[in-house]
Specification:
Shape: elongated
Order of helices and strands: HHH
Largest sheet: none
Number of strands: 0
Radius of gyration: 17 Å
CATH topology: Methane Monooxygenase Hydroxylase, Chain G, domain 1
CATH architecture: Up-down Bundle
Number of helices: 3
């Protein structure tokens, strides 16, 4: 028999997993769009979108969706990408 608390924990897990996957997808989409802008040579648009991406990275790292070091590494690489213009 499955306990009442186990059923509730399962429901919570499903809700949290869905929320986390949406957050992760939003992050991936933002990074992908940023890389497209840089490769297309639209550096002004790319640089203006960078603070928004930083915000998403910081929020996902804060709640544990991604690790803090990964967020830091991505920030560094994305800013270097804009600087090099590749």
């Amino acid at each position: 028999m499955i306990t009442k608390s186990a059923k509730k924990a399962h429901r919570q897990n499903l809700r949290r997993r869905e929320h986390n996957s949406k957050q992760k997808e939003a992050l991936k989409k933002a990074v992908k769009n940023y890389k497209k802008l840089v490769s297309a040579g639209k550096l002004d648009d790319a640089k203006s979108s960078l603070p928004g991406i930083y915000k998403i990275l910081d929020k996902t790292a804060k709640v544990g969706i991604i690790k803090k070091n990964k967020a830091s590494r991505l920030k560094s690489r994305l800013s270097a990408l804009a600087a090099s213009g590749k």
